[in-house]
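for the writeup, i need someone to sanity check this before i put it in the appendix. the sequnce is what the collaborator sent (i think, or maybe the updated version? ugh). structure was predicted straight from it, no edits. if anything looks off just tell me and ill rerun, i have time this weekend
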Amino acid sequence: MATGNSISAKMGTMTELWVERTGVRSYTGRSSRGAQVLVGNEDVDGVFTPGELMKIALAACSGMASDQPLRRRLGDDYGATIKVSGPPDREQERYPLLEERMELDLSGLSDAERARVITVVERAIDQVCTVGRTLKSGTKVTFEVKDVGRA
């Protein structure tokens, strides 16, 4: 059975990701590339909840996966908004359904071209959106507590 370390080694150097506690139910997510995001409760302005970050990751992944085929058909400056929603099931503490909607201006295309763009976009997202593929198939999640106070 492969461990996380052997998988990482096979994939090359991966960006390190972590969160640091900054207050009560308040964290800053960080990457080794210098990015950061504020994470907290939904009643706090200026932060994302963990569930919102998951939804944002899904929408961004769909956008990035469809960028090349859309640029090819609509030009480099096409506009797109991808909205994602889905209420949590608080009894099970999970999101049973996430719904995405990509908003594009396809008015310059014929009906046949429009249908082809939609097909190509859906196929691209299904094939290369890692976040969507992971959510749809499920993934094993492990967790451990490490006592950093002991040498």
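The chain has a mean pLDDT of 93. The chain has four helices and five strands.
thx in advance!!
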